Amino acid sequence: MFFRSAITWILFFLPFSLYAQNLKPNIVFIYVDDLGYGDLGCYGATKIKTPNLDRLATNGIRFTNGHSTSATCTPSRYALMTGEFPWRKKGTGILPGDAALIIPPGKTTLPSLFQKAGYKTGIVGKWHLGLGTSLEKNWNGELKPGPNEVGFDYSFIFPATADRVPTVFVENHHVVALDSSDPIQVNYQQKVGNDPTGKEHPELLKMKSSPDHGHNNTIVNGIGRIGFMSGGNKARWTDEEMPLTFLEKAKEFMDENQPFFLYYALTEPHVPRMPSTMFKGKSGLGYRGDAILQLDWTVGEIVKELEQLGISNNTIIIFTSDNGPVLDDGYEDEAVTKANGHKPAGLLRGGKYSAFEGGTRVPFIISWPGTIKPQVSDALVCQIDIIHSFSSFLKQPLSLQEAPDSYNLINTLLGKSPSGRDVLVLQGGALSIIRNDWKYIEPSNGTPYNNLTDIETGNHSLPQLYDLKNDIGEKNNLAEAYPQKVKELSALLQKIKANG
User: Fold this and answer.
1) Is residue 83 assigned to a domain?
2) Where do runs of H (alpha helix) occur along 347-459?
3) How many angstroms separate the CA atoms of 18 and 21, rounded?
């Protein structure tokens, strides 16, 4: 009796931080869309305020050399989920809204790893990795396979991007609020139904768009989209309320499940930027800046929810972006005209779609109060390493065939080691490879500028070599001065491409 009372007394007075270490920590993985290296105050932005993310970085670890695998969304998301470089697999380019699922059911994924470890897993937000087994799918019936078949116990998503149809929520396998008398049709080749399009009725648009980007098809909520859609009028979301719906679903999932892995995939600041009314005009940088304010507020709301649930000290928050920034991506939203000196990529060259650092070097913040010591790390890390790192953390071993391009960097991600990757291959306008601060971009016949966004692609017919330690802006091509280094990195890139 005395022994039992003593144990109870010890547990009662044991510091919570020590007690929490014996519990499985919850994970909130916040994945944002098109946010640049220079878009946050903690990464040097001075024209916009991001207090919640700055606080997250101050209290955790802020990586200055963190990368997505790719300079566009679908391939980065594929790599995050599978631990496999997307350029190894055909069909991992930017997907249309009616694409089939590109992750084979049964393949080991980041969420399935957490499932095996006893976690409840959920995705809330943007998916963009396909649904079903073909382009032909019944939007009015069961939509599968999808997130639920590749590791998520719960999913509340929109299928592709906010600028692509169908503009509906899908909860688990079904469109939310679908009216059977108003069935949905989706087509990316030809018009369906009688909904007005941006091309035919530009007078109906509340946000003008450039036809070059394809944002002149079916109009939803006064905004032209890519692709054609009819029906589902009661199910269609409005841009202004969509992020708030995602936030409420994320809170519900955290409230109802522990331990949990939540993949919270925000759409900000991807186009079309149509933030909630309370943020419109607040940034002074146009709707893109307003969307970043909304994003920052959302992160603050997630932190508040964790605190109210009493689990903030036992929750790891990972925050990063799928690729670098773009200002003009097809809509006239004043992102360019009201830039006001703001540099979304900071000191980096390029941006979304680019092989230069601005394409893949992104904000990368990890917070675990009481466990991760506040610090700034210049270790080379990549989102593709999350799956292998957490397989170690969760004691869920991977075979050689699983997550083949992912490294175990768990000590680096938790701030226990200053060392990161030795080598990293990146996908932008061309493939590139980084080793010991030297970056080689292989020759490419592509255009030097993206014709739609005016972003440098990094494509060049000649080899490019940059010393990132002394030239983070990639201004000086040193290929001619260091031919042996070019030869060495070129050979290594070819070896990795061929053999893994």
Assistant:
1) yes
2) 357-360, 386-393, 410-413
3) 5
The pLDDT of residue 499 is: 87
pLDDT at residue 211, rounded to an integer:
77
- Three-state SS letters, 383-395: HHHHHHHHHHHCC
Domain-terminating residue out of 387, 413, 439: 413
- Amino acid 11: pLDDT: 39
- Strands (DSSP E) contained in 182-286 are 185-187, 219-220, 223-224, 228-230, 260-265
CA 450/CA 330 separation, integer angstroms: 13
Q: Supply the pTM of this predicted model.
A: 0.95
Query: In the block, which residue shows the tokens 């530009």?
Result: 202
323/336 Cα distance (integer angstroms)? 19
Q: Give the structural domain span for 379.
A: 24-177+230-413
pLDDT digit string, tens, across residues 45-66: 999 999 999 999 999 999 999 9
- Whole-number pLDDT of residue 19: 39
How far apart CA 391 and CA 117 sit, in angstroms, is 9
Which backbone phi and psi does 438 adopt, to 5 degrees? -95, 130
pLDDT < 70 positions in the chain: 1-22, 500
Which residues are within 8 A (CB) of 187 and not within 5 positions of it... i.e. 6 or more apart?
Answer: 98, 227, 228, 229
Task: Identify the pLDDT of residue 111.
Answer: 98
Give CA–CA dist 34/271, Å, rounded: 9
Q: What is the pLDDT of residue 171?
A: 98
User: Hey, what amino acid is at 268?
Assistant: E
How far is the C-alpha of 94 from the C-alpha of 74, rounded, in Å? Answer: 5
Distance CA 235, CA 266 (A): 20
Please report, for the domain that includes residue 495, its CATH number. 3.30.1120.10
Q: Given this model, what pLDDT does residue 185 score? A: 97
Inside any domain, residue 398: yes
Based on the domain organization, do 128 and 234 belong to the same domain?
A: yes
> Of 379, 269, 372, 373, whose CA–CA distance to 38 is shortest?
269
Token pair belonging to 2: 């005395």
